[in-house]
């Protein structure tokens, strides 16, 4: 076991959150795939983190650009409540509660992006293994990637003002935040709408929402406690699946 892994284990142990398996990698194909292999061995708690991914993926199997030097981690969560889309929202909200991040004026973008007024700085991918177990993958930009093919602005915690927080400390805080999110989920996601809407990107702004039946234009007024997007068109419409974007004029 190398020194960094021991240091991370010590940080997690001090938080009473040491999983059965802790793996730190310089590069991997996908940390979600790594943690899936661990789960298939019957292990229920684990953390895999890499500085680079060669086959990272996001929602709907979109490629997740994963250049070297950022944080890409995956872990397992167990829930008593059958899994649904609210878990990803809870993960985002609990990450924003990490003490060192609270002063950065960060946002969440429905359904699974870590956002800010300057753009996206991270993302979340939840992949259920059963009704009560899921892989939670999180990618965090510590530094802004030099080149991206993203269709949205990209930023990083460094550009947003994060200072004097070690990489291992942030990894340990992210792990704790994800486990806390599972507990919030199991307790019914109390006041989910109020907590999410307080941090929501584009709240009360004109947006476009792409869903299976087409494109809706209107005002994004937040989410429901069930996790649905609410768009005023002018009558309120709710959607559980789709893609939210700012309104653009042609």
From TrEMBL:
Its EC number is 6.3.4.15. The keyword DNA-binding does not apply. It catalyses: biotin + L-lysyl-[protein] + ATP = N(6)-biotinyl-L-lysyl-[protein] + AMP + diphosphate + H(+). Transmembrane segments: none annotated. Gene3D superfamilies: Bira Bifunctional Protein, Domain 2. Residues 5-186 form the BPL/LPL catalytic domain. This is biotin--[biotin carboxyl-carrier protein] ligase. It comes from Acinetobacter pittii. The lineage of its organism: Bacteria, Pseudomonadati, Pseudomonadota, Gammaproteobacteria, Moraxellales. The gene is birA.
């Amino acid at each position: 076991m190398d020194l960094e892994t021991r240091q991370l284990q010590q940080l997690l142990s001090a938080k009473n959150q040491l999983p059965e398996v802790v793996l730190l990698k310089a590069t991997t194909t996908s940390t979600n795939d790594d943690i899936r292999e661990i789960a298939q061995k019957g292990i229920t708690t684990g953390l895999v983190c890499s500085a680079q991914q060669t086959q990272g993926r996001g929602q709907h199997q979109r490629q997740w650009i994963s250049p070297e030097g950022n944080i890409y981690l995956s872990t397992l969560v167990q829930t008593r409540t059958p899994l649904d889309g609210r878990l990803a929202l809870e993960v985002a909200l609990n990450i924003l509660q990490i003490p060192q991040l609270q002063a950065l004026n960060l946002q969440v973008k429905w359904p699974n992006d870590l956002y800010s007024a300057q753009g996206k700085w991270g993302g979340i991918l939840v992949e259920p293994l059963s009704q009560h177990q899921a892989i939670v993958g999180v990618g965090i930009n510590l530094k802004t990637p030099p080149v991206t093919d993203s269709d949205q602005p990209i930023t990083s915690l460094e550009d947003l003002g994060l200072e004097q927080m070690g990489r291992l400390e942030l990894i340990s805080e992210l792990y704790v935040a994800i486990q806390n999110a599972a507990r919030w989920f199991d307790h019914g996601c109390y006041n989910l709408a109020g907590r999410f809407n307080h941090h929501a990107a584009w709240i009360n702004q004109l947006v476009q929402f792409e869903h299976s039946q087409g494109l809706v234009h209107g005002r994004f007024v937040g989410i429901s406690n069930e996790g649905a997007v609410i768009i005023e068109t002018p009558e309120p419409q709710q959607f559980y699946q789709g893609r939210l974007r700012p309104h653009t004029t042609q």
